[in-house]
Every structure is written in structure tokens, then in C-alpha cells.
């Protein structure tokens, strides 16, 4: 469920839209793009992942996964980026980001959930291929603390246990993650061969869900040249004001 009851009750008094996020997070990028597409005013709460600010008791009291993003809407707490952008588009109806056709609406959710359900494959590829990945490892004490607090998402805990183990990810695990990503992008490339957008004839939540994957995987040198139809789609999106404000603005000094 996207809406949760936080144990950190202080956030329930917040008025307006508040986003807990970090710049280089594909999930946070989705939410920022959606907020900017809707031209909504929102207050930024940057979380420094390198300093472990997402693993404090205070933040776990807001998001029981200890991840970004988290959206607060007049004290209502929404987690999981796919659920957040769906919530935003449902509540703030002006400038709809969903197709009107029920068939196309189902297709939109299929694309969104494909991205969400494969997020650990993306993380495995990223953690295995970015240059500074070893600097992302946690100490034994940090892992013990995280293990004690992370009781909400067993799969995410298992991922971090594996990454922080002495052996790290096996070659088989890396290959499996790559195969999942390859299959997703091949499906996208095939769709975009004859269409401008992933669903219907207009930019939608499906496109918002997927474009950040290209941003983060570029940093891991993913071979996007294998999928030529993605290029035109990507170029159309990066020119949108929402991408410039929701993604590029937050990557200043980090590269793109």
C-alpha cells in the first residue's frame, strides 16, 4: 500500500507537499518529474545517503524501508515511487499523466510495475559497475544497525546483505541482473520502433517511470547503443522542462 502510518509522528503536522529525496536516485527522479509536470509547489528535504541519513531512527520512522523517496502530503505519508507518482496524478487531476482508455491504462501500469518489480536488478547492475561501488559498502556495525531496523522489506535487506558480504555478488547474479535489464530495454525498444511514447499517443507515468533508469545506468556504462529506438524517446523527454527541473537541476556537479 502506498500510504502508511509513520512512527515518526512529527511529519503528520507538515502542511503541503514535502519530498524526502536525493539527487542521484532513479526513484526520486520519477517523483520530481511528476511534481514538475503537474507544476506543483513542494518542499525539498535532501537525504545524504553517503552519511547514512536514510538509516537513522528518525527517517526509518518516516519510511520503514529506509529508502528515498518519501512524499508527505498534508501529513499523509506515501512511499514507493510508483505509488507516489500514481497518487500525485490521481489527486492533482489537472494535466493528467494517464491515458483515458482502460486498455492503455492497464498497459501503463504494466510498464510501471515492470520497472518497480525489477528494481533490485537495476541496483545489482549499478552496484556492480559504478566505479566507487566499494565506497558504498557498510561496516559490520552499520549492517547490524540496518538489520535491526529493516523489518519491512526482506528482499531489500537480502540485497544489502549480499552486497556487503565478503564475496559480494557472484558472476551468475550479475549476469542474471543484466539479462533482466536487457529484456526490459529490448521490449521498450520494440515498442518505440513505431511509437513516440511507451503507452498510447501521449507522455505518461509509464515514461516517467522508465526515463530515470537511463540516467542512472549511463553512470554504470550500460550499452544503450544496442537499442537505437530508445535514443529518440530519450531525447524528447530530456528536452521537457520537467526533466530539466526534476533531474538535471539535481545532478549539478555530479555529471549526467
Automatic annotation (TrEMBL):
Domain GST C-terminal as annotated: residue spans: 134-256
Pfam family, one: GST_N_2
InterPro entries recorded: Glutathione-S-Trfase_C-like, Glutathione-S-Trfase_C_sf, Glutathione_S-Trfase, Glutathione_S-Trfase_N, GST_C, Thioredoxin-like_sf
Biological source species: Vibrio comitans NBRC 102076
All copies of domain GST N-terminal, residue ranges: 15-96
UniProt-listed SUPFAM superfamilies: GST C-terminal domain-like, Thioredoxin-like
Entry annotated with the keyword Membrane: no
Name of this chain's protein: Glutathione S-transferase
Gene3D superfamilies: 1.20.1050.10, Glutaredoxin (3.40.30.10)
Keywords on record: Transferase
Domain of life: Bacteria
Statement: the UniProt record of this protein carries the keyword Cytoplasm: no
GO MF annotation: an example: transferase activity
Amino acid at each position: 500500500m502506498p500510504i502508511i502510518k509513520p512512527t515518526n509522528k512529527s511529519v503528520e503536522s507538515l502542511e503541503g507537499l514535502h519530498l524526502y529525496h536525493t539527487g542521484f536516485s532513479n526513484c526520486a527522479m520519477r517523483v520530481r518529474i511528476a511534481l514538475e509536470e503537474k507544476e506543483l509547489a513542494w518542499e525539498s528535504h535532501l537525504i545524504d545517503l553517503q552519511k547514512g541519513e536514510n538509516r537513522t531512527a528518525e527517517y526509518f520512522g518516516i519510511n520503514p524501508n529506509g529508502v528515498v523517496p518519501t512524499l508527505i502530503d498534508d501529513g499523509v505519508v506515501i512511499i514507493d515511487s510508483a505509488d507516489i507518482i500514481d497518487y500525485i496524478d490521481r489527486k492533482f487531476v489537472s494535466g493528467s499523466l494517464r491515458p483515458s482508455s482502460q486498455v492503455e491504462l492497464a498497459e501503463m501500469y504494466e510498464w510501471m510495475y515492470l520497472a518497480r518489480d525489477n528494481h533490485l536488478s537495476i541496483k545489482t547492475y549499478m552496484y556492480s559497475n559504478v566505479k566507487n561501488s566499494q565506497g558504498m559498502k557498510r561496516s559490520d556495525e552499520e549492517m547490524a544497525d540496518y538489520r535491526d531496523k529493516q523489518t519491512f522489506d526482506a528482499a531489500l535487506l537480502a540485497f544489502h546483505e549480499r552486497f556487503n558480504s565478503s564475496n559480494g555478488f557472484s558472476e551468475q547474479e550479475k549476469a542474471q541482473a543484466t539479462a533482466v535489464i536487457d529484456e526490459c530495454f529490448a521490449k521498450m525498444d520494440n515498442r518505440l520502433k513505431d511509437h513516440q511514447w511507451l503507452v498510447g499517443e501521449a507522455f505518461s507515468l509509464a515514461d516517467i517511470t522508465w526515463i530515470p533508469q537511463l540516467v542512472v545506468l549511463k553512470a554504470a556504462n550500460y550499452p544503450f547503443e544496442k537499442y537505437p529506438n530508445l535514443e529518440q524517446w530519450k531525447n524528447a523527454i530530456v528536452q521537457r522542462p520537467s526533466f530539466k527541473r526534476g533531474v538535471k537541476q539535481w545532478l549539478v556537479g555530479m555529471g549526467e
